[in-house]
Amino acid sequence: MAVVAAWLESRSALTALRRSLPRGSGGLLVCRSGAALLRALNGRLVDAIVFTPRTMAPGEVSSLRAAFPLVPAFAYASFRPDDGELLATFARRGVPVLVEGVDDAAVGELVVRGTAQAERRRALADAPRLLRLRSPLQREVWTLLHGMVDRPLRTSELARRLHVTREHLSRQFAVEAAPNLKRIIDLTRVAAAAQLLGNPGHTPTRVAAILRFASPGHLDRTTRRITGVGARRLGELGPKGALEAFARGKTRSRV
Question: Can you give the pTM of this predicted structure?
Answer without folding.
Answer: 0.92
